[in-house]
Known about the structure:
globular
Amino acid sequence: MIQDIAPYKFNNEYRHIMPEEESIIMFFCNDKLAVREKHKDSSNNKIHIEFPRYKTVKEAVKSPIYLFEIDGVSYFRQYIEEENIPFWEENNLVLQNRFYFRVVAPKVAAFASLTALHLNGWYENNRYCGKCGQKLQNSTEERMLYCPNCDNMVYPKIAPAVIVAVLNKEKVLVTKYKGREYKNYALIAGFNEIGESLEATVEREVFEEAGVKVKNIRYYKSQPWGMADNILAGYICELNGDDTITMDDNELSVAEWMDKKDLNTENIDTSSLTNDMIKYISQMK
Ligand SMILES: [Zn+2]
């Protein structure tokens, strides 16, 4: 999955530090991240990307915020207006949105980009106190913003959601979401609501989207998913009772039982939890 970047090591313990010469600078403008394209890999069509080191773009770095560290190299966020994006070694950096970063290479750069985009969105959306309107300040102790006027503390926002594989003997419930660019088969998915356990989310979402009941709900794996500020929790469960599907056609264009052996997992990109689960289920005995 996208967070599996071994042998690289991701460290997100907050530190109140400034960039060093070799630190990586991620320039953000609104919801976009500035990146340089190195080349396209013809074997998988993935674009290889890179980001500038502090020493090469120093003059454009005015108010860096520490993001995280990968293999001892620190990553920083620098907000910048589009017209001020620096030339980096005479090459243009180009602003790209989140969807671009899902299919870039190497994987460590894709993961760093989506994680940085999630953090950037949080900083962008919390420039002012939601209670009193004062400008928020950065805590020097932890990843937190505070209001000097009313002491409001704002912590990073992560939206929990579930991905669910419903098994019915040799079959699995597959879906396609309406109006999405992503046209491959997916699984049932949905956000956790306030006051609900993740298992209750599983039951509710399966019933809302497909009209069936489930049992034997068990946890599979989780995934940080910066595409939509999520933490995704994967669950596998079994049909309980009637297998008649009543599809929620506001959200889905397809909901159907498919033989596990008919799942097409050849060349499947397992960077997402959904695809990791589809591959796992196709191999289940
Ligand atoms: Zn306030």
